Amino acid sequence: MAVTILAIESSCDDTSVAIIRDGYVLSNLIANQDIHMLYGGVVPELASRAHQANIVPVTHQALLKAGVNAENIDAVAFTRGPGLLGSLLVGTSFAKGFAIAQNIPLIEVNHLQAHVLAHFILEKDKDNRLPSFPFLCLLVSGGHTRIIIMKNQLDMEVIGNTIDDAAGEAFDKCGKIMGFSYPAGPLIDKLASEGNMNAFRFSKPHVKGLDFSFSGLKTSFLYFLRDRLKEDPDFIEHNKADLCASLQHTIVSILVGKIAKASLQTGIREIGIAGGVSANSGLRAEMKNEAEKSNWNLFIPEFRFTTDNAAMIGITGYFKYLRGEFSGHDVTPLARY
């Protein structure tokens, strides 16, 4: 008998709802909140208010697009955390209400675990290539940078973590220094394709093991621009593409270097990337180059499954449903999970 999951993602500023049936995505809709661009970052109060306005119509449209009635849903999966508490509260409350109304189970999902499981989303009429276990994944987003070993769909071990800033945070903060609007990552990626990645050199932190650090790079970038702007007030405007290319090359080389080191240490050649920064074209290209050199079996999610989306919540909920891992209605959201 088919298992149909309604999935809710509301960890930050995107309201997303998806319908997953037996691992296949039937719909995956996202309502973005452009208002945060005015403030240079996500404003938690505005985010939670927008989720309240969006969640009902987005759910309605997701059901319509999937051709599924509320009565056909077998369980509701929702992001419990980590994320913005107010935003998570909206999604958690809606999921509880829907589950009670339909008398179906509730499934809590760890947002970070879901990013990794995006590799297991199935799509109809596509060649669904799935990783084998053990699977080594580089999770890179605005708030997290980790290396994870997947032993099966729900058994994961973190073997590398950032000790300060995440890679996505470094992109956005360095972009802000250059005067870019939030989020800066996509614009840096675009401009980097027009620049010389060897034009400038920025310091790379020396962190032992498989952990990451990006705060030093951010500081190095800030001081570099401060000194150059004293000489030429228009330095950023004159060198924008080269700055972006050099910054991106530095961050990407740190990321790829660490995942390559992890592969050597563990002997795992099933390799993937996940999270919002995995949409970065420079990271994708360098991962492909390393995969050819190191004989990896490389997995890179579709672009629409890299950023925050409910399909990844749904596929995680599906695997938890098969194991009977359900939550009580006393469950509360967690800013840190």
Description:
This protein has about 325 residues and is an alpha/beta fold. The protein has helices at about 45-65, 85-100, 110-115, 165-175, 185-190, 215-230, 235-240, 240-265, 280-295, 310-325; strands at about 5-10, 15-20, 25-30, 75-80, 105-110, 135-140, 145-150, 155-160, 270-275, 295-300. The chain has 2 domains: about 5-120 and about 305-325, ATPase, nucleotide binding domain (Nucleotidyltransferase, domain 5, 2-Layer Sandwich), CATH 3.30.420.40; about 135-300, Nucleotidyltransferase, domain 5 (2-Layer Sandwich), CATH 3.30.420. It is about 40% helix and about 20% strand. Strands 3-2-1-4-5 form a 5-stranded mixed sheet, with helices on both faces. It is globular, with a radius of gyration of 20 Å.
